[in-house]
Specification:
The chain is mainly alpha-helical and 193 residues long. The chain is 55% helix and 5% strand. The protein has helices at residues 21-40, 48-52, 60-73, 81-95, 99-120, 130-140, 144-158, 188-192, and strands at residues 8-12, 15-19. A two-stranded antiparallel ribbon has the order 1-2.
């Protein structure tokens, strides 16, 4: 006798939606987490200004600009600023000993802020819409500063195992018997990306 519970199906807007036990538990757990966060009355993630305040070598303004820049290059609305911050924090420490990197970043941020002020009368991090900021980024996309941040973010952000669950990545499977019996054909991540 098979003890597995078959997935539940329902029709929603002309489509058949199948809800597996795993999907239900995942969704209900996230809902409970959200309700818990709302009931405490506090935000679970600090504001951008608070996150950027830790930039001792580059300064909070540069840190805030780098954070907004990182989000604009790789936008994922469901992912908190703190995960982006983990990818850009190493710049502050490296700039204490690497003068060339410090110059590249400070001059790159200054150029971006000048460009934003010429078009929007405010620094880049304060330009209100993502579309307006992305238009500014197209202007500098071939420069060394933009390419450095973009290149480092690919590994600094996406190699962080803490963000993998947001994309449906469960991590290494070899020590758990491989992917064959662990949902190798699940593509739920595609809807979450």
């Amino acid at each position: 006798m098979d003890n597995k519970i078959p997935p539940a199906s329902m029709r929603v807007l002309g489509k058949t939606v199948t809800l597996s036990r795993r999907g239900f538990l995942k969704g209900s757990g996230l809902t409970a987490l959200g309700i818990g966060a709302l009931s405490t009355g506090t935000l679970m993630t600090p504001a951008r200004d608070a996150l950027a305040a830790d930039f001792a070598n580059l300064g909070a303004d540069v840190g805030k600009t780098l954070l907004v820049l990182a989000r604009d290059i790789f936008p994922h609305d469901k992912i908190s600023d703190r995960y982006y911050m983990l990818a850009i924090e190493p710049y502050d420490a490296r700039c204490a000993t690497d003068a060339a990197l410090r110059t590249l970043i400070t001059e790159g941020v200054a150029q971006l802020d000048r460009l934003a002020r010429s078009r929007h009368d405010k620094p880049y991090a304060e330009v209100p819409t993502e579309a307006e900021r992305v238009a500014l980024l197209y202007t500098i996309e071939h420069g060394a500063f933009f390419q450095k941040i973009k290149g480092d973010m690919v590994t600094g952000f996406y190699n962080n195992k803490a963000v993998w669950p947001f994309f449906g990545e469960e991590g290494s499977a070899w020590e758990k018997g491989g992917y064959v019996n662990r949902g190798f054909d699940d593509i739920d991540w595609l809807a979450n990306a």
